[in-house]
Amino acid sequence: MSTRRAFLKLSLGAAAAALPALSTPRAFGANAARTLRIGNQKGALSLLKGRGTLEQRLASLGVKVTWTEFNAGPVQLEALNVGSIDFGDVGEAPPIFAQAAGAPLAYVAATPPRPQSEAVLVPHNSPLREVADLKGKRVAFNRGSNVQYFLVQLLRKHGLDYRDVNPVFLAPPDARAAFEHGSIDAWVIWDPFFAAAQASFGARVLADASDVAVNRGFYFSSRNYARDNPDVIRVLIDEVAKTDEWGKNNRAAYAAELAKLWGLPAPVVERAVDRTAFGTVPITKTILGEQQKIADTFLDLGLVPKRVDVLQAAVPGLA
After folding, report:
1. Which domain does 197 fall in, by range?
2. Do 109 and 15 have their domain in common?
3. Which of 21, 38, 61, 171 yields a CA-CA distance of 20 to 30 A from 131?
4. Which Pfam families match (predicted)?
């Protein structure tokens, strides 16, 4: 899409308990009518929705839950920016662009690093064998995505500059077609597109993000919602953690549910799930520092118009 196993040994309650920095709810009685509007992509939050456990737990707090499905993280964050949702899940890059646009987001939880879930792929018969071989080659990726950051860092690690390759900006479906027809030399992509390319074309991994990029997922809210509803956020993150723990211990069943959501063959999703690091971790300054490095790289590339201070998206009282 590491040292992630240590956190998984903690109780699920520890993940949610990492949010006490949020103040107690303001201006709400124990059973005051409230709403939690979740924006979800087809993934872990969709599995949580199907279980109904979140609604059951929040009912005792007088909280009604609504769900809206989105096809991408940037659209979710735009919905947050205009006040249409209170919570969602997203990758590393979209929150940076959202902050640059003035969105009032707050990071409330994250996944462990998932560097093996994103990679530079080449055709199985490609003469490219090392990262240095990418010099002068056509490399496709989604512009402004976390894999663009991964590519920049990978090239630097191997003594190359971003200007040493010929970027081809393509969304995953278009990049897949270009890869299949040989009109690009390499494709930088994440799961499940990564796993699908391996299964369909025998794509070969030139390098994954291990020791190069972190590749986390994030859960976000708005600053006001996180400040005023810490009890709701704690329950929500606890339920996310429980769903994730179930997936870790039941990978085949987890993959089967995702395969239905994504409309992909089960073996493809199983491959992606096998290299997924499960877990739900609290936001720390170290994690936000990782995001700051991405934000600064995007500024250097001219992808954002001004420097983004990621710490401004911390929840109140972050240690």
Report:
1. 115-208
2. yes
3. 171
4. NMT1 (PF09084)
